[in-house]
Design a protein that fits this description.
The chain is of the alpha/beta class. The chain has a single domain, classed as Alpha-Beta Complex (Spore Coat Polysaccharide Biosynthesis Protein SpsA, Chain A). 31% of the residues lie in helices and 23% in strands. Strands 1, 4, 5, 6, 8, 9, 10, 11 and 12 form a nine-stranded mixed beta sheet that branches. It has a two-stranded antiparallel ribbon with strand order 2-3. A hairpin with a 5-residue loop joins strand 9 and strand 10. Helix 9 packs across helix 10. The longest helix has 15 residues. It starts with 5 loop residues before the first strand and ends with a helix.
């Protein structure tokens, strides 16, 4: 049994690139196949044995209400109607959602600075007493084996580590888009070079993305006064500080990371997910082949 029991999943931005749909629903509720992105993140946690999940939603929107409804509404009216229609089997997917481990939905603290670290700080009280916890950015979709499972396995081999971060090899033409990982001589994290302008500035071909295992010590550095680039509160800045005081393990993903952070990459992620998982994948291949 894993000693890592809790996960934070963040979806606390306004997703302006997805307007107008995101004026009504949070971005992580757009579907991949027949499931929203957020559910796929939850399933990744469940595969890894996580027992409690904290979803951090955008403040001053209906996001919290929508997530609470999706994960907690028993939808008895839907079940009754399906039973009457002789379609009770269609409720199975809803029952699976309702059977997930404990899910708590909170709003990001609106008083915190902008940045991907602020949703984590907002959930601090839920994880501060844990040995370690995991963080998922819901922009990031993992196809194949759960990254969270990999992070936990590596942490349990090195329980004195300050953190474990997921990494994936990327082709040179993509290095300028991402945070590229610099390693110490022992193979642990030294620092991350954000969006190197030229290939020679990239310290490796490994990129970091939104899958982390963190110890509560991260909150010593992930504080509102420690803003960085563009005045934002960055998770990787705090992780780099952790690496100055101990080992931050770099775990290579055994799945495939795809971002859904913009409409183009969302479509590509959706397409690849369908081709891997849907029973209508061959129909899609024929359409693409004949286009």
């Amino acid at each position: 049994m894993t000693t890592v029991k809790k996960a934070i999943i963040t979806d606390a931005g306004f997703a302006s690139r997805y307007l107008p749909i995101t004026k009504t629903i949070p971005k992580a509720m757009v579907p991949i196949g027949a499931k929203p992105v957020m559910q796929l993140c939850v399933e990744e946690c469940v595969e890894a044995g996580i027992e409690e999940i904290i979803i951090v939603a955008t403040p001053n929107t209906k996001s919290k209400e929508i997530y609470d409804d999706y994960f907690h509404n028993k939808a008895d009216n839907v079940k009754t109607l399906l039973d009457k229609q002789g379609k009770s089997d269609r409720f199975k997917s809803v029952a699976e959602v309702l059977d997930f481990p404990k899910i708590t939905v909170i709003e990001q603290d609106p008083n915190l600075p902008y940045g991907n670290g602020s949703p984590i700080v907002s959930a601090k009280d839920y994880v501060k007493d844990e040995d370690a916890f995991v963080v998922l950015y819901s922009d990031d979709l993992i196809l194949g084996e759960s990254d969270i499972k990999v992070l936990i396995e590596d942490y349990e081999k090195a329980p004195d580590a300050k953190a474990v971060i997921a990494a994936q090899e990327m082709p040179e033409e993509a290095w300028h888009k991402y945070g590229m990982i610099a390693l110490k001589d022992n193979g642990t994290l030294s620092h991350i070079v954000e969006k190197p302008k030229t290939p020679d500035l990239a310290p490796s071909n490994l990129t970091s993305y939104g899958r982390y295992l963190l110890t509560p010590e991260v909150f010593d550095y992930l504080v509102p006064s420690n803003t960085g680039l563009d005045g934002e509160l960055w998770t990787v800045d705090a992780i780099t500080k952790l690496a100055e005081h101990g080992d931050v393990i770099v775990a290579k993903s055994r799945g495939k990371w795809i971002t859904t952070g913009d409409p183009k990459n969302y479509f590509l992620a959706h397409l690849e997910y369908v081709l891997r998982n849907a029973d209508y994948a061959e129909d899609v291949r024929k359409i693409v082949a004949n286009s």
